[in-house]
Amino acid sequence: MSLESEIEEKLREEFKEKILEVKIPGEHRIFVSVPSPQVKELVNYLRQNFGLTHITTISAIDIGDDIEVLYHFFCRGVTIRLRTLVPKTEPVIDTITPIILGAILYEREIQDLLGLKVKDHPDPRRLVLPEDWPEGVYPLRRDYQVGFKGG
Fold it and tell me: Structural domains in the chain?
C-alpha cells in the first residue's frame, strides 16, 4: 500500500464525517478538505501518526463569502494539501504553530493580507504591512480598493 493510500485510509477511519474530501490526484500527492475547526486536530494527527514536520507554505484567497486556506505540507515524500474554508463573517482559525513551528510566518502573512485572525498565535505582530496601515483594510480581499490617484 502506498503512503498516500495509507494516509487516506487512516484519515477516513479517524475523522469519519469530519473529512469533507480526500483524494489522491497523482503519485506522491494527497488532497484533504476539512471544516476549519478540524485543521489543528488533523495536523496534529498527521504529526503524531506520520511524522509530519515540514510545511511548505500556507496560501489563502478571498473567494467571496469565505477565505479559502490551503496548507501545503511535505511528509515522507508525499505532498499533502489541506484545504479549509473560513467564513468572512467570522474570520478566525486556530494556529498550528505549536505543532508545526514553520507555520509562524505564513500565519502572520495571511492575518495581515486577508484579515484572517489566527487564534492563539504566539506572535501576532504585523509581518508584511507597515505599523501605520489602517485597521480593517486587507489588500488581498476582493473589496480592497487601491488608493491610486494617478496623474
Answer: 3-89 (3.30.460.80)
